[in-house]
């Protein structure tokens, strides 16, 4: 997801889920792959009450079910609990440059999906990692789509023929009745 804060575009990288322990650490659910890539950014923007506030990552630990992170200024369990379900973002300008035919997932969300027959299948709601390095686009019906059906379409080179972010469209080799 992409948001504006103080005249800069932001990208959501994860969220704080709840407190971790009694010393102000928080549990973090990372949208990055691998999950530890969120730790590459030393300063996070947290959306608290609709306002983005900057926090420096002091320390972190990897656990089997996710990450535990210590943030500057969050020193007790109550302060950590107050951050529950808060989104974590960084300025989009800080993300690594991609190759020409590569995209961040947030760039694909909201694009309309059209098949080779010119049928509008819907709009990308989200992308899922189905394991083994396979990604799947969740396509929701929307105004103008051929039906009201939700579709799961693999994000694979043989299926996704063209992504045009300027036109807001993805061309797929996928039949409407699959």
Automatic annotation (TrEMBL):
Keywords: Chaperone, Cytoplasm, Ribosome biogenesis, rRNA processing
Stored Pfam families: PRC_RimM, RimM
Annotated GO biological process: ribosomal small subunit biogenesis; rRNA processing
Ranges of residues in domain RimM N-terminal: 13-93
Gene3D superfamilies: PRC-barrel domain (2.30.30.240), RimM (2.40.30.60)
Keyword rRNA processing appears in the UniProt entry: yes
Endpoints of the signal sequence: none
Keyword Nucleus included in the entry's annotation: no
GO terms assigned for molecular function: ribosome binding
Entry's Gene Ontology cellular component terms: cytoplasm; ribosome
InterPro entries: PRC_barrel-like_sf, PRC_RimM, RimM, RimM_N, RimM_N_sf, Transl_B-barrel_sf
Superkingdom, taxonomy of origin: Bacteria
Entry function: An accessory protein needed during the final step in the assembly of 30S ribosomal subunit, possibly for assembly of the head region. Essential for efficient processing of 16S rRNA. May be needed both before and after RbfA during the maturation of 16S rRNA. It has affinity for free ribosomal 30S subunits but not for 70S ribosomes.
The protein's assembly and partners: Binds ribosomal protein uS19.
HAMAP family membership: Ribosome_mat_RimM
Family the entry assigns: Belongs to the RimM family.
Matches recorded under NCBIfam families: 16S_RimM
Protein name, UniProt field: Ribosome maturation factor RimM
Organism: Venatoribacter cucullus
High-level lineage: Bacteria, Pseudomonadati, Pseudomonadota, Gammaproteobacteria, Oceanospirillales
């Amino acid at each position: 997801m992409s948001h504006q804060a103080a005249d800069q575009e932001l990208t959501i990288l994860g969220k704080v889920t709840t407190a971790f322990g009694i010393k102000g650490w928080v549990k973090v659910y990372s949208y990055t792959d691998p999950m530890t890539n969120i730790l590459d950014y030393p300063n996070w923007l947290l959306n608290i009450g609709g306002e983005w506030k900057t926090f420096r990552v002091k320390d972190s630990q990897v656990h089997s079910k996710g990450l535990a992170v210590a943030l500057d200024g969050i020193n007790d369990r109550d302060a950590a609990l107050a951050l529950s379900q808060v989104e974590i973002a960084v300025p989009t300008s800080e993300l690594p440059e991609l190759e020409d035919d590569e995209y961040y997932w947030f760039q694909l969300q909201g694009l309309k999906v059209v098949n080779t027959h010119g049928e509008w299948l819907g709009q990308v709601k989200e992308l899922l990692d189905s394991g083994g390095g396979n990604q799947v686009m969740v396509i929701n019906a929307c105004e103008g789509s051929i039906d009201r059906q939700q579709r799961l379409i693999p994000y694979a080179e043989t299926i996704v023929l063209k992504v045009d972010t300027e036109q807001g469209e993805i061309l797929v080799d996928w039949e409407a009745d699959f």
